[in-house]
Amino acid sequence: MSIWRDIWKETIRANRIAAEKDDFSEYAVLYKKYGDDGMIHYAQAASYELKDDIPNAVAEYKKAEELFRVDHWKKVAENSAARLTQGKTLEQFYNQTIFEEILWSAFQKIYRLIHLNDFARYIALSALSRGSSEWPLSLVDFRTVIELELKEYFSDIVEQIEPYTLFTVLKELEAQQKLQKGILSVLHKIRKAGNIAAHDLKVYETEKSANVRNFITALEFFNDFQNQQPRRKR
After folding, report:
1. pLDDT tens figures, 171-201
2. Using the 8-state DSSP alphabet, how is residue 198 labeled?
């Protein structure tokens, strides 16, 4: 893993701690470890946004834009600052009929889902960030994130299933009425899309936006599900 990805991964934990405990000290640790880095500022901006501290959020997004070396990421940070400056929601700022904009709207939503598993959230962000260039891999990663979340919250069921497949896990959760049919349907769609991308080398080209929406629907469900559970140390 590159240093850049190490930084990105560690900012997810800092982002969660800032939201859960109103403690931004983890960011200071990251600055000391890695220096003044754009991805750290971006995650810190997202933390301020979660706290409705818009001035600091805008300032941090602008710092991220200055420090990012790749134009693609500079634009992401620039758009984030512009959205807050204009007082718009993600749905208002990003055109929800354009795949590229749906991707980045979803990307920024992940920073709000602080109850998800940290590693799963990192994989989700990575998958969305490369959706334009490596869409089949994004679909596989969507499926992987769903598996990580199911193992996190239903480990007692997952560990007993033989042979293990995501299909058999979902069927067992359905049989035990652990998940409602609506969310089960969404999870099966993600599973099927990931399978096709991984094994048949095909892509749901006509359903790309729908796949992103399904993914976010699933993660919002898991985020809410975890938020309702007794607190665990992480």
Report:
1. 999 999 999 999 999 999 999 999 888 877 6
2. I
End-to-end CA distance of the chain: 23
d(CA 166, CA 127): 19
Query: Which pair of structure tokens corresponds to residue 89?
Result: 């929601």
Closest CA to 211 of 184, 180, 177, 188: 188
pLDDT tens, residue by residue, 133-163: 999 999 999 999 999 999 989 999 999 998 8
Q: Counting beta carbons within 10 angstroms of the beta carbon of residue 117, is it exposed (0 to 12), middle (13 to 18) or buried (19 or more)?
A: buried
Residue 96 and residue 147: Cα distance in Å, rounded? 27
Q: Would you tell me the crossing angle of helices 118-129 and 208-227 to the nearest 10 degrees?
A: 160
User: For residue 50, which of 109, 102, 94 has the smallest C-alpha distance?
Assistant: 109
